[in-house]
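Q: Hi! First time doing this. I have a protein sequence and I read that you can turn it into a structure. Is that right? Here it is:
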Amino acid sequence: MMLEVNNLRFAYTNHEVLAGVSFKATAGECLCLLGENGAGKTTLFRCLLGLLRGFTGEICINGIRSQKLSIRETAKTIAYIPQAHAPAFNYSVFDTVLMGTNPQIESYRSPGIAEYETALNALKLLKVDHLSDRGYAQISGGERQLVLIARALAQQSRVLVMDEPTANLDYGNQIRVMRQVKLLAQQGYLVVLSTHNPEHALTYADNVLVLKQGKVLTHGHPASVLTPEVIQQIYGVSVELFTLPSATGCIPTFCPCPK
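A: Yes, that's right. Below is the predicted 3D structure, encoded as structure tokens:
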């Protein structure tokens, strides 16, 4: 699986939000997007998902331009995991994940044995199958986020687009979700996620794409591109980079500089 974006531009009326964004990402990779609010991350995601069609440049998936893909074909290729959210209806966890199989079902057909197995396998992979009969509105925020990822896996798409998957989660659930994200990349999925936590990128990402005012500020391995100078450019704060020892090696982390 290969995702290639070439000179992507998009504007809302006369306001250009993406100004020539280019990058490549491949299967088995976790690509982390960083950038201040308004940098263009959400617009980039909407273009990747086919929700915005009025862009110029190219988005190619395995060499096929995204504009040539139908909505169903796009859904079979790219799955979207939104930020944790409160559901409108209290569907069971299992039914919520089963909805992800919709792109694989022919029109006017109900889910069958194959779709039920797909949903159950996705729940097992994320280790939340014990929640199958619980109401989606009655589980914790971290559990909901894992269920949303399971729903995306049930879609059987090999590209996973995640919009701040750890937003509003406590520290423990942030770590649990990010560990699962990293594991999915290691299993061959291409994961593209946005975050406002540079330490998540340092710890879990294979590559980082930093956006500023709709342009690529830098792109590459986290250890190479996430410098204190880049953090200063993105967020306007001074930090120092430290490497802390741990049981599994060394963990890089940022620490704000005293005023």
